[in-house]
Design goal:
mainly alpha, Serine Threonine Protein Phosphatase 5, Tetratricopeptide repeat, Rossmann fold, 2 domains, 5-stranded parallel β-sheet, 24 helices, 58% helix
Amino acid sequence: MTTLQRPQRPDRFDGLGAPAIDAAAQALRALQRGDAAAALAALERVGADAHTQPELMRLRGLAHLQSGDPTSALNCLRLAATTWSEDALIACQLGVALACCGEASAAEQAFVRATQLDPTLVEAWYNLGHACDARDDAVAAAAAFGQVLQLEPAHLDARAMLAETHKVAGRLDEAERELREALRRDPACVSAWVGLSNLKTFRPTDDDLDRLLALHQGGRVAAARRVDFMFALATFLEAAGRYREAFALFVEANRGKRATLGWNAPAVSGLVDAIIARFARAAEVPVGEVRGSEAIFLVGMPRSGSTLAEQILCSHPQVQGGGERDDIVQVLQQESQRRGVPFPTWADAATASDWARLGEDYLQRCRAWRDARPRFTDKTLTNWQTLGAIRRMLPGAHVIHCRRDALETLWSCYKHNFGAAQFFSCDFDELVAFWHDCERAMRQWKRDWPAWIHDFTHEALLADAPGQIRALLAACGLDFDPACLQFHATAREVRTSSASQVRQPLRRDLAVAARYGDLLAPLRQRMERIVKLQAAE
């Protein structure tokens, strides 16, 4: 979201003397150069007016936002909005503060209010688009970003976001057209190049690659976008068959990204140890329980074909796609807070009624976003960590373990620029450790409940799509429906990096790890050590 500044109107400082107006100007200049401390210091010199006059309160709010204190920002902007309730700029920036404080619904309402007060306020429409996108409403998001472009056709970030909404909805040609228009206006637009790399169907020309390499080597990409740009360029180089250059750039991009992340691989492995140990002692679910039979959980490693599995299932008229959700984690975290001890410490003390209560809590949360279809998917892949709890909460649920060739999966993870959710993929050692944790946990759950978990393997799907799709549906208790064979024609919003791939029939040319040859030897060697360890377990 943005808190762009607009030119100050003289009437915003009505009643203030020259010293206060000069301090406000100093504060604004400090904000524009990113110096929130200087902005706050300038405003404090004003005295009491800085805590009462709406424009000065707005500037204080922006300074708090910039310094990472959204709660103080929200207090300032709420007070400003109380006095100037018809001010669109304050309403818009109040929305930003609300969003930063986790009040998503109130933030969206504030952005809507801002667009009503001033339909020409570009940042209000832009922020509204992001708010709609955050609640998975691609139609409303597209409308808001489209309005931004009506007002400001050169707003390239809005154009890139509009392209993203087209991709989510499966309008790939429209997405590419918007991104190409952004590049026509600015050939160095990082957002557009990143968007094209995520389309997967786009293939750059030699001229495109020369231009991109020149941008990279010339240091002309802003530091904040450099990692994103390197991932995109490496993806393009791979598509062009320039594997050695692609590999070097993927390594550089991952090193840059890893430096910004706080990931503790041994701590994750320790958590998995604790989960397995606790659920070995936890009371088993009574026989015959069917609670949660409407839920289908897809679990496993990222880049393992899970989006394709969900697309196939959601092509069935009885199944709604839930996508990647954190409802299970929220339920378990809330129970941990109630008990005052972290998960899974309390697992073996939970009673059957406790697990039933938690299962009903999860189902109630899902009712808030579900439609009338009787079944739904939950594609939170890391639920492999919580299957012990899910088994007791929702014994009637169906679990699909999505699998793909291990080397292809791990290499695909490494070269993918995940968002904030996946921190394990930037280092070969950490990536292999996470894969090992997933594999050993899934082996344990399958030993415990062999009939409860169905393996859905990408290579088997390529070899016999009709047979594998029928088996998938049967494992979920669904009758066969021919629409599932034509999954690529199913219209729905898909918000993962595979959104463009599941709009196409099955392809057998997507495996690329072998083309890197000895470049992937370090990854293979780490994986081989884990395989030997697994064999000895």
